[in-house]
Amino acid sequence: MQSLKLRTTGAWGREKRTESRERDEPEMRGKLRNVLALLLAVLLLVGCGAESRDQGGALGEDQVFDEIEYQRPELSEMEQAVAELQACLGRLCLPGTLEDRIEDCYDCYYHFETMLSLADIRNCQDLTDPFYSAEYAWCLENLPRIQQLVEEMYSSCATSIYAPILERLFFWEGFTELYGSGERARQPEEIYELYRQENQLINQYRSIIADPYIQLDGELVSLEEYMAATADVEEFYRAMDAYYQQYNPQLGDIYVQLVQLRREQARLLGYDSYEQMQYQMSYERDYSPEQAAVYLEDIKEYLGPAYLELMSSRPYEQISWEYMSPEELLDIMSAAAGNMGADIMESFEFMDRHRLCDIQQRPYKAAISFQTYLSDYEAPFLFLSPYGDQGDLLSFAHEFGHFTDAYINCNAYETTDLAECFSQSMEFLLLFYLEGSMEEQAIEELRYYKAVDTMEMYIGQAAVSEFESRAFRLPEEELSTEKLNSLYLEICADYGMCDGSVEELGLGWIDVTHLFESPFYVISYPVTNDVAMQLYALEQDSPGSGLEKFSAMLPRVYEGLLPSLEEAGLDSPFEPGRLEEVLSCLEPALSLGKKS
Predict the structure, then answer these.
(1) pLDDT tens profile 516-531
(2) pLDDT in tens, 249-261
(3) Residues 419, 421, 422: CA angle, nearest 5 degrees
């Protein structure tokens, strides 16, 4: 799942209604305005405000991740910090005092965020661990209260007599207009109860998938243990069929409730749809759901036929799958990072020195991969759920792209789509920097696998994106697990993923974690992969040029996708002909499979 980020250069992701604060007497307010106007003029003349405090929270030179201690955060500390800031805002204070109080609020928030991320990581390391399962559930359920307190903090600052000074010194341009105009103050208080209920359902979802048991031959067996003990393909499919038959109704019911809750959130916040709400509020996309829908249709038209032809050749049977240990995985990535240059190698060495990654195989480890950030320690963390073969290199590279971005930019705010550009580009660039760590034949085979995987990504993620969009548009009377199953089967058939005749294939959507935990995220994968393909094409044409463009984009000028692409001289994914270019770029790698 995504790490929650506090955006200090724009609007906070959740809305809130705040009550009007009591006003001072008019005469006193007039005097304060005069004092503040003079103070602001002086500060603007010198061009700076109070210096930021050194938080001193970075990892020690020899400190490693396993030494970081989890402690349940105290909500009362954030509540007290906001109350003390509000008290200062109601009287005459120096900018340095106000900064201290604002920093106290941020410190409390970032500590909560750090503990949430830490509980999430350790819960994912062993989904059956009762302590971290309970702690992650507690943090997630109390997250809306923290979000609410941040909104109170912003609103109090923006409606205070200090607002012009605070915007100039501590926030961003337009902060006062956004939080002081009353627009955000009209948001309903009920929204936070809906967020809490949503997070409760996510916790239920995690609890169910942590250690599912299935009925086989009259016995109740752990799916995890059964899969680990069997090597028979038919037994594998029999177990998975039992899993889907038993758990599709349970997880489907949770998803139906999530859809209902999320649609109610959108209604309360004044959006036409929850999809629109996510695009604008959570992901701040600079393209619309309507543009995305056209893009999905283009994927069907331009990539669908090529995908069908590719799958008919059984491409995965042409790959020599070999076991790759975590140690070998780490060594290869280290060598590739060294080949890529100083900044990327520095990021890898930081990760390795502090053991800020988990790439091990173990029972009951969550079957997801992600990068998150430990704000108290100024450290990214990489989580990988490996299969144990060379394909793990690409998953590792993906998350390492996120890690490097977070490391270089100190986790500074960016949109999801821009972040995905760096992770997906790292996968493609890796293919050109494996010399010395893998045999040339193995590298060529990995390039072929990546090309096949990319075709599957476009088709598979496009299908999930369309499924999600259409699921949220279902009338209330049609919203059911059975309808969702048939809808998913229909869409998979439309994209050429199946012929639509086997109903059981429609049950598999419950495996898509993003549907439950990060709604409307997956469209970012095909959209931003176009950027990665442009860097891949540059690297093919002129070795080093793709990496050079990647490195130039890393210290970001803009937070969003399309302005960043324009700044870098790259094309928008929505430009006519881009998907044809993608296919043309992939064909040389795909042709390797035809020769074997």
Answers:
(1) 999 999 999 999 999 9
(2) 999 999 999 999 9
(3) 75
CB crowding 81-99: b at 16 or more within 10 Å, else e = bbeebbebbeeebebeebb
pLDDT the model gives residue 181: 74
- Helical packing angle, 545-553 and 561-568, nearest 10°: 130
Evaluate the CA torsion angle 339, 342, 347, 348 in order and state its sign: positive
Structure confidence by residue, pLDDT tens digits, 468-485: 999 999 999 999 999 999
Residue 201 pLDDT level (bands cut at 50, 70, 90): very high
Q: Is 378 left (phi over 0), alpha (psi -120 to 50) or beta?
A: left
Query: What is residue 50's predicted lDDT score, i.e. its pLDDT?
Result: 37
Helix axes 481-494, 440-472, angle to 10 degrees: 130
Contacts of 208 (CB under 8 A, 6+ apart): 247, 250, 251, 254
Judge whether 126 and 132 are in contact, CB under 8 Å.
Answer: yes
pLDDT at 183: 54
Give CA–CA dist 262/255, Å, rounded.
10
Q: What is the 3-state secondary structure (H, E, C) of 191-211?
A: HHHHHHHHHHHHHHHHHHHHC
* φ/ψ (deg, to 5) at 360: -80, 155
User: What tokens were used for 486?
Assistant: 């048939």
Rg of the Cα atoms in the chain = 25
Q: State the pTM of this model.
A: 0.87
Both structure tokens of 504: 């059981």
Range in 87-96, 183-192, 327-336 with the lowest mean pLDDT: 183-192
Burial class (CB in 10 A: 0-12, 13-18, 19+), 531: buried
CA nearest neighbour of 574 among 417, 444, 352, 358 = 417
- Please enumerate, as own/partner, the contacts of 442-448 that have beta carbons within 8 Å and a separation of 24 or more: 442/390, 444/592, 445/319, 445/320, 445/390, 445/592, 446/390, 446/393, 446/394, 447/589, 447/592, 448/315, 448/318, 448/319, 448/589, 448/590, 448/592, 448/593
Q: What is the mean pLDDT of the chain?
A: 88
Q: Mean pLDDT throughout 418-445? A: 95
pLDDT in tens, 528-566: 999 999 999 999 999 999 999 999 999 999 999 999 999
| The two structure tokens encoding residue 198 | 């949503």
* Kind plus residue range of the DSSP H or E element containing 129: none
Q: How far apart are CA 572 and CA 591, in angstroms?
A: 27
Burial 322-344 (b: 16+ CB within 10 A, else e): eebebeebbebbbbbbbbbeeeb
| Enclosing H/E stretch for 341 | none
Burial of 203: CB neighbours in 10 Å, binned 0-12, 13-18, 19+: middle
Instruction: Report how far residue 178's alpha carbon sits from residue 415's, in angstroms, rounded to the nearest whole number.
Output: 19
Q: How far is CA 480 from CA 199, 246, 510, 558, in A?
A: 20, 16, 13, 41
DSSP secondary structure, 278-321, as one string? IIIIIS--SS-HHHHHHHHHHIIIIIHHHHHHHHHT-GGGGS--
